[in-house]
Design brief:
Strand order of the largest sheet: 1-12-2-8-11-10-9
Number of strands: 12
Mean pLDDT: 91
CATH class of the largest domain: Alpha Beta
Radius of gyration: 19 Å
Number of helices: 4
CATH architecture of the largest domain: 2-Layer Sandwich
Largest sheet: 7 strands, mixed
Strand content: 25-35%
Helix content: 10-25%
Distance between the termini: 50 Å
Structural class: alpha+beta
Length: 208
Amino acid sequence: MSEAATTQTPISAWRPRGAWEGAATAGRHGAAEGPAGIRLTLRDGIGLATLVAADGGDADLRAALAERFGPSLPGAGEAVFVGETGLVWSAPGQWLAVAPTPQALRDLPEALRGIAAVTDQSDGRALVRISGPKARAMLAKGVAIDLHPRAFGPGRAAVTSIAHIGVQLWQRDAGPTYEIAVARSFAGSFWHWLEHAAAEFGIEVEGA
Protein backbone atom coordinates (compact mmCIF):
# COMPACT_ATOMS: atom_id res chain seq x y z
CA MET A 1 0.00 0.00 0.00
CA SER A 2 1.46 3.37 -1.02
CA GLU A 3 1.70 6.22 1.43
CA ALA A 4 -0.35 9.35 0.80
CA ALA A 5 1.62 12.09 -0.85
CA THR A 6 2.28 15.15 1.22
CA THR A 7 2.86 18.72 0.11
CA GLN A 8 4.68 21.49 1.86
CA THR A 9 3.64 25.12 1.81
CA PRO A 10 6.55 27.37 0.83
CA ILE A 11 7.69 29.58 3.70
CA SER A 12 7.22 32.62 1.45
CA ALA A 13 3.46 31.94 1.41
CA TRP A 14 3.30 32.87 5.09
CA ARG A 15 4.57 36.42 4.60
CA PRO A 16 2.51 39.20 6.24
CA ARG A 17 -0.19 40.65 4.00
CA GLY A 18 -1.62 44.14 4.15
CA ALA A 19 -5.33 44.44 4.82
CA TRP A 20 -5.94 45.93 1.36
CA GLU A 21 -3.71 43.54 -0.57
CA GLY A 22 -5.57 41.92 -3.42
CA ALA A 23 -8.24 44.63 -3.40
CA ALA A 24 -6.50 47.98 -3.93
CA THR A 25 -3.93 48.96 -6.54
CA ALA A 26 -1.77 52.08 -6.31
CA GLY A 27 -2.01 54.68 -9.04
CA ARG A 28 -4.62 56.68 -10.93
CA HIS A 29 -8.07 55.19 -11.41
CA GLY A 30 -11.51 56.32 -12.57
CA ALA A 31 -11.91 59.54 -14.53
CA ALA A 32 -8.61 60.36 -16.22
CA GLU A 33 -9.25 64.02 -17.07
CA GLY A 34 -7.83 66.72 -14.80
CA PRO A 35 -6.54 66.37 -11.22
CA ALA A 36 -7.93 63.56 -9.09
CA GLY A 37 -10.82 64.64 -6.89
CA ILE A 38 -10.26 61.79 -4.41
CA ARG A 39 -7.05 60.63 -2.76
CA LEU A 40 -7.13 57.26 -0.96
CA THR A 41 -4.24 56.46 1.37
CA LEU A 42 -4.07 52.85 2.54
CA ARG A 43 -3.07 52.86 6.20
CA ASP A 44 -1.40 49.47 6.58
CA GLY A 45 0.83 48.92 9.62
CA ILE A 46 -1.21 51.22 11.88
CA GLY A 47 -1.75 50.29 15.54
CA LEU A 48 -5.39 49.87 16.56
CA ALA A 49 -6.92 48.71 19.84
CA THR A 50 -10.38 48.80 21.40
CA LEU A 51 -10.67 50.16 24.94
CA VAL A 52 -13.67 49.25 27.10
CA ALA A 53 -13.80 51.07 30.42
CA ALA A 54 -14.59 49.19 33.61
CA ASP A 55 -17.99 50.02 35.12
CA GLY A 56 -17.86 53.57 36.41
CA GLY A 57 -14.21 53.82 35.38
CA ASP A 58 -14.32 56.57 32.76
CA ALA A 59 -12.64 59.11 35.04
CA ASP A 60 -9.82 56.70 35.93
CA LEU A 61 -9.37 55.82 32.28
CA ARG A 62 -9.23 59.49 31.31
CA ALA A 63 -6.52 60.16 33.89
CA ALA A 64 -4.47 57.09 32.94
CA LEU A 65 -4.58 57.87 29.22
CA ALA A 66 -3.65 61.52 29.74
CA GLU A 67 -0.57 60.39 31.67
CA ARG A 68 0.60 57.54 29.40
CA PHE A 69 -0.93 57.98 25.95
CA GLY A 70 -1.32 61.66 25.13
CA PRO A 71 -4.76 62.40 23.62
CA SER A 72 -7.59 63.03 26.05
CA LEU A 73 -10.64 60.77 26.19
CA PRO A 74 -13.18 62.04 23.62
CA GLY A 75 -16.87 62.40 24.32
CA ALA A 76 -19.72 60.78 22.39
CA GLY A 77 -19.36 61.21 18.64
CA GLU A 78 -15.88 62.72 18.91
CA ALA A 79 -12.28 61.90 17.95
CA VAL A 80 -9.16 63.46 19.49
CA PHE A 81 -5.75 63.26 17.82
CA VAL A 82 -2.24 64.48 18.59
CA GLY A 83 -0.41 63.98 15.32
CA GLU A 84 -1.09 60.40 14.21
CA THR A 85 -1.98 59.17 17.71
CA GLY A 86 -5.59 59.41 18.78
CA LEU A 87 -8.75 58.09 20.39
CA VAL A 88 -12.07 57.68 18.60
CA TRP A 89 -15.38 57.24 20.41
CA SER A 90 -17.02 53.92 19.50
CA ALA A 91 -19.95 53.50 21.94
CA PRO A 92 -20.75 54.43 25.55
CA GLY A 93 -17.66 53.43 27.53
CA GLN A 94 -15.79 52.27 24.43
CA TRP A 95 -13.09 53.85 22.26
CA LEU A 96 -10.71 52.97 19.44
CA ALA A 97 -7.05 53.80 20.08
CA VAL A 98 -5.03 54.67 16.96
CA ALA A 99 -1.23 54.87 16.80
CA PRO A 100 1.43 54.98 14.05
CA THR A 101 2.51 51.38 14.81
CA PRO A 102 1.14 48.42 16.80
CA GLN A 103 4.22 48.63 19.02
CA ALA A 104 3.12 52.07 20.21
CA LEU A 105 0.10 50.41 21.89
CA ARG A 106 2.01 47.47 23.35
CA ASP A 107 2.11 48.84 26.91
CA LEU A 108 -1.57 49.84 27.09
CA PRO A 109 -2.94 46.53 28.49
CA GLU A 110 -0.64 46.68 31.51
CA ALA A 111 -0.98 50.45 31.94
CA LEU A 112 -4.79 50.15 31.99
CA ARG A 113 -5.02 46.96 34.03
CA GLY A 114 -8.14 47.12 36.23
CA ILE A 115 -9.27 50.30 34.44
CA ALA A 116 -10.16 49.11 30.96
CA ALA A 117 -10.09 46.01 28.77
CA VAL A 118 -7.69 46.46 25.85
CA THR A 119 -8.03 44.33 22.70
CA ASP A 120 -5.53 44.64 19.86
CA GLN A 121 -7.26 45.29 16.51
CA SER A 122 -4.18 46.08 14.41
CA ASP A 123 -4.63 42.98 12.23
CA GLY A 124 -8.41 42.85 12.58
CA ARG A 125 -9.38 46.07 10.81
CA ALA A 126 -8.51 47.83 7.59
CA LEU A 127 -7.97 51.60 7.67
CA VAL A 128 -8.14 54.04 4.76
CA ARG A 129 -7.67 57.82 4.67
CA ILE A 130 -9.93 59.69 2.26
CA SER A 131 -9.10 63.22 1.17
CA GLY A 132 -9.43 65.54 -1.80
CA PRO A 133 -11.93 68.21 -2.87
CA LYS A 134 -14.62 65.63 -3.68
CA ALA A 135 -14.20 63.50 -0.54
CA ARG A 136 -17.43 64.69 1.11
CA ALA A 137 -19.48 64.34 -2.07
CA MET A 138 -18.21 60.81 -2.60
CA LEU A 139 -18.91 59.66 0.96
CA ALA A 140 -22.39 61.20 0.85
CA LYS A 141 -23.30 58.52 -1.69
CA GLY A 142 -23.17 55.82 0.96
CA VAL A 143 -23.07 57.29 4.46
CA ALA A 144 -26.42 57.57 6.23
CA ILE A 145 -25.35 60.60 8.29
CA ASP A 146 -25.25 64.32 7.53
CA LEU A 147 -21.69 65.20 6.47
CA HIS A 148 -22.36 68.93 6.04
CA PRO A 149 -19.65 70.94 7.87
CA ARG A 150 -22.26 72.38 10.23
CA ALA A 151 -23.18 68.85 11.37
CA PHE A 152 -19.97 66.84 10.95
CA GLY A 153 -16.62 68.61 11.00
CA PRO A 154 -13.07 68.02 12.22
CA GLY A 155 -13.02 65.96 15.42
CA ARG A 156 -16.38 64.32 14.77
CA ALA A 157 -16.81 60.54 14.67
CA ALA A 158 -19.60 58.08 13.93
CA VAL A 159 -20.30 54.37 13.87
CA THR A 160 -22.45 53.76 10.79
CA SER A 161 -22.70 51.61 7.69
CA ILE A 162 -21.74 51.94 4.05
CA ALA A 163 -23.06 49.49 1.46
CA HIS A 164 -24.44 47.38 4.33
CA ILE A 165 -20.94 47.14 5.86
CA GLY A 166 -20.34 48.41 9.38
CA VAL A 167 -17.71 51.16 9.51
CA GLN A 168 -16.19 53.57 11.98
CA LEU A 169 -15.72 57.03 10.47
CA TRP A 170 -14.00 60.15 11.75
CA GLN A 171 -12.96 63.48 10.22
CA ARG A 172 -9.35 64.55 10.73
CA ASP A 173 -9.40 68.08 9.30
CA ALA A 174 -11.40 70.63 7.33
CA GLY A 175 -9.77 69.64 4.03
CA PRO A 176 -11.84 67.56 4.41
CA THR A 177 -9.85 64.45 5.37
CA TYR A 178 -11.68 61.41 6.71
CA GLU A 179 -10.55 58.05 8.00
CA ILE A 180 -12.61 54.88 7.89
CA ALA A 181 -11.96 51.62 9.75
CA VAL A 182 -13.70 48.46 8.58
CA ALA A 183 -13.42 44.84 9.66
CA ARG A 184 -10.57 43.28 7.69
CA SER A 185 -12.81 40.47 6.42
CA PHE A 186 -14.95 43.11 4.64
CA ALA A 187 -12.03 45.09 3.18
CA GLY A 188 -12.48 43.71 -0.35
CA SER A 189 -16.23 44.35 -0.43
CA PHE A 190 -15.81 47.84 1.00
CA TRP A 191 -13.09 48.69 -1.49
CA HIS A 192 -15.36 47.60 -4.34
CA TRP A 193 -17.95 50.17 -3.22
CA LEU A 194 -15.32 52.85 -2.56
CA GLU A 195 -13.68 52.52 -5.97
CA HIS A 196 -17.00 52.70 -7.80
CA ALA A 197 -18.29 55.63 -5.74
CA ALA A 198 -15.12 57.64 -6.34
CA ALA A 199 -14.57 56.74 -10.01
CA GLU A 200 -16.42 59.75 -11.49
CA PHE A 201 -14.14 62.15 -9.62
CA GLY A 202 -10.83 60.52 -10.51
CA ILE A 203 -8.92 58.58 -7.82
CA GLU A 204 -5.30 58.59 -6.74
CA VAL A 205 -4.45 55.56 -4.57
CA GLU A 206 -1.36 55.69 -2.36
CA GLY A 207 0.27 53.15 -0.11
CA ALA A 208 -0.78 49.91 -1.82
